[in-house]
Write a structure and sequence with these properties.
Pfam families: Hydrolase_like. Keywords: Carbohydrate metabolism, Cytoplasm, Hydrolase, Magnesium, Metal-binding, Zinc. It comes from Desulfosoma caldarium. By secondary structure, the protein is an alpha/beta fold. It has a single domain (about 1-180), classed as HAD superfamily/HAD-like (Rossmann fold, 3-Layer(aba) Sandwich), CATH 3.40.50. About 30% of the residues lie in helices and about 20% in strands. The protein has a seven-stranded mixed β-sheet with strand order 1-4-3-2-5-6-7, sandwiched between helices. Helix 1 (about 40-55) runs parallel beside helix 5 (about 175-180). The longest helix has 17 residues, at about 75-90. The protein is globular and about 40 Å long.
């Protein structure tokens, strides 16, 4: 598990967990492998700004198996992450921490979603009350990770793609809609 923490602001109060690819930026079937392939959704930067203005801490929880698949090297990974953080700050948003799992599914780690390892590590590190915290993702594995950790599962479906979503899961068309409604 890779952990990145910004120490610029104190970490107490309200939190939200966000998946990265498919929530903040456009996902790709061949993985987001470098900063040129990282394209923000227009509403994502606005949502992050909206959260910061309300003093809600943002923690990224993201599988990044392109690393262990050999599709991306560590230098490109950290350049992409740095680019993302700088662009979010430029838009007056903030990311307080990011937890990344570099493992492939066949490695059977405890951090790869839908396992709750990254969420529980963040909760332990920052004393995050899981039952009061939403995890917003775009895949059913995100929903399962939220449920496995005891968080409120929230799904963002940006297309009209038909997915069998459990009735108790809140579904929104964008990250901005989700955070405005939930907070």
């Amino acid at each position: 598990m890779i952990i990145w923490v910004s120490l610029a602001e104190p970490m107490s109060g309200r939190f939200v967990f966000l998946d990265r690819d498919g929530i903040l930026n456009r996902d790709r079937p061949d993985y987001v492998k470098n900063r040129d392939e990282f394209i923000f959704y227009a509403d994502a930067l606005e949502a992050l700004r909206w959260l910061r203005r309300r003093s809600i801490h943002v923690v990224i929880i993201s599988n990044q198996s392109a690393l262990h698949r050999g599709l991306m090297d560590w230098q490109a990974f950290f350049q992409l992450h740095g680019h993302m953080v700088r662009e979010v700050q430029r838009a007056e948003g903030w990311i307080d921490a990011a937890f990344y799992c570099p493992h492939r599914p066949d490695e059977k780690c405890s951090c790869r979603k839908p396992a709750p390892g990254m969420i529980r590590a963040a909760a332990s590190l920052f004393s995050i009350p899981l039952a009061e915290t939403a995890f917003i993702g775009d895949k059913l594995s995100d929903v399962a990770a939220a449920e496995n950790a005891g968080c409120l599962p929230v799904l963002v479906q940006r297309t009209s793609q038909s997915v069998d979503v459990p009735e108790h899961v809140r579904v929104y068309n964008s990250l901005l809609d989700a955070v405005r409604t939930l907070v």
